[in-house]
Amino acid sequence: MEPKRSRLPMTWALRPVLPENVTTDNITTVNVFVDTIIDRTSTSKIVKSLGQLSVINSLTHLKRVKNQTIILMLAKDLNPDECVAELESKGFNFAGLSGRPEITPVPACMPKTCSQNLQARKLWPCNFHPDKRLESILSGDFFNQLELATIDGHMRMALACATGGVGAVVVDPLNNLIVAQSGDFRDEHPVKHAIMCVVDKVAKAQGGGAWDSSSTIAKTSRINDDKTGPYLCTGYDVYVTKEPCVMCAMALVHSRARRVFYGCEDASGPGGLGGSVSIHLLKGINHRFEVFAGVLEEECRTAALALHTNNVAQNIKHTE
Amino acid sequence: MDWSDHMNMSLCLAKEALEVGEVPVGCIFVDNDGNILASGRNTVNETKNATRHAEINCVDTIIKAGFLEKLSNITVVVTVEPCIMCAAMLINIGCANIIYGCANDRFGGCGTVLAVPGLEKCKVQGGLFGNQAMDLLKQFYKGQNPNAPENKVKKKPVNP
Description:
heterodimer, A: 320 residues, alpha+beta, six-stranded mixed β-sheet, four-stranded antiparallel β-sheet, 34% helix, elongated, B: 160 residues, alpha/beta, five-stranded mixed β-sheet, 6 helices, 37% helix, 16% strand, globular
């Protein structure tokens, strides 16, 4: 039997679904030529004249000088003599330097996080400025306890309507009211995943909708030009017990959701928000939203499994 | 197989969409024997639901008619490359064949923006009357421009 944990504030941990180039601590490197500064008083002069040569244009994320070493240029496939020859041919004067360049690996691009910066500066210091919002998301203190409790509450609502193993609610974060909620009906209709249903219920709340027969019959096909009311899911947060599939993830992009919280991963198919693909991180998409996974993960997984067990039971019944 | 006649039907549906101020995309679903199972167009503005694309409306029509079992192995003839959502949906239902007109640079799920998981199971062919499909899209987006002259076609109310 599960230990009773209800008195604990939160039994789950939120996981932001971020691009790999943010979550990794592996630094890609590029080789450069560096030289030792012999005459420290001429450092600024050397830095300036190197800057005018435009040989370090792709290295602006790096500090020019580390201790008494200065970056000359990208190593490309040159040897030290060729490096000296190339710089001198451009009019560079090695006065104040040792004149014996060496190859060293440096970070190939600007670190995206403090953690990456720690790794990067072991190689070479960077002109790094932390993104405070991102750092707070990474450290897990982006949401305070009250906000986490609210997230917990909304996901419990999604669990409560998880007919068919998946439940979804759309919430207006300005007043924490639920705009729409739905279970999952994909066994009746292949498009009626919880997300597709809840998005249509939001539409219905705005005077539209396609799936609720009571509203579609009376509705005319005249287009409402009123631009003052709510527009799709703009500004709304979406809570869904299981990771949306690719179709549903893209439906949330089309619907302009503000933020998406989900419980457990989709073990049965290609997940669209961190599983097989991350639709919210695709380049070229016209709308972006943040994604957080892991809300009430165990409870959500149990809900999904319960359906699976039901289906298996039903199938057995059918075959008998 | 020559899908020109089918694509012409889809283009007619797309034109109809344009006339009522919807993104002009039209689509028909054809079964293995060449029977047309459903036809549809975008109804996003009408339903205030951004997921009501032509392909999804076709699935609805088939489900409403009680032909759920006919959904797999179909051919979809659509004027514009299905978006990521629709492409994923078509893979989900076991669609065998996708014939489209012009590519969808903003949302294309058949390789333009993303090749959705499982797409390799489906035969995809683009470029059938692509220019005509693209012309309709251009007309629509020209109409969307607030600086463009008022488009009478777009504003025309349609009787129920």
